[in-house]
Please model this.
Amino acid sequence: QLQLVESGGGLVQPGGSLRLSCAASGFTLDYYAIGWFRQAPGKEREGVSCIGSRGGRANYADSVKGRFTISRDNAKNTVYLQMNSLKPEDTAVYYCAADTSTSWSTSQAMCFMRLSLFGSWGQGTQVTVSS
Model:
């Protein structure tokens, strides 16, 4: 069974930084593109970033471009989301998920931030940006 566990969330002041981690167990992470999503209270879950299975081209939501960086260390079976210049509107529960729908050959080179593609999800980690 694919299991993902997020960590690294917390309370940070505007302009601060956090690094989220997504650790996988029960499967080899490098077979899957991984995405980060977030959900704020009263809002729909939205894509933040994703990365291909072999660290191929990453995608970012316009709202986080230039501030967030996704990376993966397949040897550690972990994907990271470095978040800099955080804003109050970044406050949300952040989830990582594995794309279990896209073929491995395609996911090596690209990823898609489409919720319906992601079949395995972590439990989420809270990020609060507030002074």
